Amino acid sequence: MTKTITHALCIAFLLCLTSPAKADDPGYFLSGKQKKDLLCLGRIQDSAGTWYDVWICPGYIPPARYAREHLKEAGGNFHEYIKSNKYQSLKEGSKACFNWALEECGLGFTVKGIPRAWGRHFTVAHARTQRRVFGWWMAYPWAFMESTVETAFRGVLGSVGTAGGIVSGVAIVPAYHALDSAVAGVWNLSVNTVLIPVVGVGWNTVVGPPLALVGQKPSESRVDGFWVTIVDSDRAPITRNLSQEEVSLLGQWGLLLLKETQPLAQKQMEIDKSAVEQEAQLRRAMQAMRAQVDQQRTELQKEERALIQQVAATNELSSAVLSQHATLAYGRNCEADVRRYLNGLNVSGEDTERILGLLRVYQASRSVVPSQVREKTDPLRRSVEVIGESAADTLK
Fold it and tell me: Per the domain annotation, does 19 fall within a domain?
């Protein structure tokens, strides 16, 4: 196996050193330039400038770019520990747990719920005693039993809920926020930065040279949309560093987009602010509604008791029944250059990120609908995808 990989590497190296030839050389086999593009990019360009993406051939450059991008993401994951957003989310999550534990479980369900339960059961017992129903002398002991059972239930469940909420607020939520960025960072660093690119490069070394040696020149008539897809020429991969003039053009285009979309960004801020205010109003309305519902329940219970007494005075059978019912145009590798350019113009960090986001969607000359270009694959990735698709079908 080692000898096979070594031979494949030698062939790939020799093919990369092949003197570039025109992509439209006559003949069946790929030209020198096409072989080199296939090995390096996983794509082939014909004489008309059309790029053909070979799905099963990752190329050597895309895995390296993939590793570089996810290395930056891993750095961003670990950088979250020095940003305020993480600790603000931790504060809000712990506060929600404490509110649920103390207000919902402790105060509402247990502290207020137990006296309401005793009052409800003994009110029924008082009504039964006043009417001297059959076995009325058991009304208060029965009410005491019901109240004791409900008190035990509310006490145990409320205590468990309160303790669980407090533990969540003190330990679980902070532990989650302490580990989530680290886990994501380690995953990006080990899997996305190392494992997947290494597998991609290894697979390209095995499959790339044979395809480059015996592969047929591409044409639109032989594109199946699966193994080979056509990529727009204006979305061909950028494999060189941008010149200062190109970086300047992208930066100026981003500033223009920022200026033109500023009214929409302002509207978005107003929508977000309105949403926050509406959520606060909704919380206050819910609290007021709970108090109103409790009051309505109390009044309804009084009304019900009065109605039962009235009916019981004229019809004993009705009284008994009622008593029972009472219970781009540019790749991501260009972003660093554009970011440095914008920083040199003293553009704020927030505006810089918005500009980069806008540049991912629009080209410098016109807005376009990005082509659907699938990510490269290899046996490992495809195996994971097949397992995921099978699991999804099983769960349907």
Answer: no
